[in-house]
Design brief:
Elements (H helix, E strand, L loop, with lengths): L1 H23 L5 H8 L3 H13 L3 E8 L5 E7 L4 E8 L3 E8 L4 E8 L6 H17 L5 E9 L3 E2 L4 E2 L13 H6 L6 E5 H12 L8 E6 L3 E7 L2 E3 L30 H4 L1 H11 L6 H9 L3 H25 L3 E6 L6 H12 L11 E4 L6 H17 L4
Parallel strand pairs: 3-6, 6-9, 10-13, 13-14
Antiparallel strand pairs: 1-2, 3-4, 4-5, 7-8, 10-11, 11-12
The structure holds zinc ion.
Length: 388
């Protein structure tokens, strides 16, 4: 008896989650929902009525349904909930508030003072956050999502030992904020969270699976597998920046030799570029120059494309993903580096005869780091299918 009650509750949560997930990725009617989910019209109506009553859904305009009748579209109510998003990088933190549809309502981005301790930085963030929450948006606070460079312990909610981030090693970020906010707080690697946000709001929408490649002060990855973020057995999955491109190369802080991060992260490629021409101290300058016909600048872009093609080829050979989405500074006038990478990768991968892999730039433009962190909580809510 007890088991069947549990099963019914689980089924209800599963169906509720399914409905929310479909509406989240695009307005649709009850008829379309029934078609997409395989649930009966009666079951859909029950769930939708409940979500409308709770204020989680809104009814939109009448749309033409596939069976020719006019049907009312359903959409998430942006004001049902709000979330706090915090991204901590090696140089800055970005803090903000998002509505339930991922729109950034408030945000602040500040440089981290390298002379102060991690605890002092957290206290500064806390004060910024409390000021933001003095005048909260409509709805209920759903939770706080935090992103930071990996490796980190998602279950314990703390940073482990990210290279070049020594002051933050072992910092229990989740506990710190749980003591301030009375809501769920979660932590995720920034590159994984960006890939997950791209799946919902950006270039990843059209793929069930793809790989997100973040190239900034380091190199990170996020593997979205059948709509879910793949973390691996111990949470270290997709750490593509610490894949060796030269097994006789320099020792990396991670303990491996010749990691691609040592050559192709933005500071490292700029270091090499400046040795060729002192004006090449910014990726945008290099791309502008390369596009204007400067062969030395084109040489730098070619070198970066070669490193990234090397790891993207590995990614595709192992995971067989149809697309790789690139985040960060490299997306500036992306066509040049995109063509270079696409050509190299698609001449090397085994699946090249089947159409090859797409190389895309992230389409997250509005405060992507805050969106990625806050989205973790929205994602958890929708996946759980719970009522609050
Ligand atoms: Zn490494």
């Amino acid at each position: 008896m007890r088991k069947s009650t549990l099963n019914a509750a689980e089924m209800r949560r599963f169906n509720r989650s399914l409905v929310l997930e479909h509406i989240r990725t695009g307005e649709c009617s009850r008829i379309e929902l029934a078609k997409k989910t395989g649930l009966t019209r009666a079951a859909i109506s029950l769930i939708v009525d409940e979500l409308l009553e709770e204020g989680i859904l809104l009814q939109g305009s009448a749309i033409s349904s596939s069976v020719g009748r006019r049907a009312v579209s359903l959409l998430l109510n942006p004001n049902a909930f709000y979330v706090v998003g915090l991204d901590i990088s090696r140089t800055h933190y970005a803090l903000g508030i998002l509505d339930f549809c991922g729109k950034c309502l408030k945000q602040v981005k500040k440089r981290i003072d390298s002379r102060i301790t991690a605890k002092d930085v957290l206290d500064e963030i806390k004060n910024e956050m409390l000021v933001m929450l003095e005048n909260p948006p409509q709805g209920k606070l759903l939770g706080m999502g935090i992103t930071a460079p990996g490796p980190l312990d998602v279950n314990e909610g703390k940073l482990l030992n990210p290279p070049n981030f020594e002051k933050w090693h072992g910092i229990p970020l989740v506990d710190y904020f749980k003591n301030i906010l009375d809501c769920p707080v979660v932590l995720e690697k920034n590159s994984g969270a960006l890939a997950l946000a791209e799946k919902v709001y950006g270039a990843g929408r059209q793929y069930d699976s793809f790989f997100g490649l973040v190239v900034d002060t380091g190199i990170g990855g996020g593997f979205v597998n059948q709509g879910r973020l793949y973390r691996g057995s111990f949470g270290f999955g997709a750490e593509i920046g610490h894949t060796s491109v030269d097994c006789f190369g320099d020792m990396c802080d991670c303990g491996n030799n010749g990691c691609v991060e040592l050559y192709a992260s933005v500071p490292r490629i700029l270091e090499w570029a400046v040795s060729l021409d002192s004006s090449f101290n910014d990726w945008k300058v290099i791309i502008d120059e390369a596009m204007a016909g400067n062969l030395l600048a084109l040489n730098v872009a070619e070198r970066e494309a070669e490193y990234l093609s090397c790891i993207i080829t590995t990614i595709v050979q192992v995971l067989d993903v149809p697309a790789v989405v690139i985040f960060g500074d490299l997306t500036y006038k992306f066509e040049l580096i995109q063509n270079l990478i696409r050509e190299k990768v698609n001449s090397r991968i085994l699946s090249r005869s089947l159409g090859g892999v797409e190389i895309k730039a992230s389409r997250l433009t509005d405060a992507p780091a805050i969106l990625a962190s806050g989205n973790l909580i929205i994602e958890n809510y929708i996946r759980a299918g719970d009522t609050i």
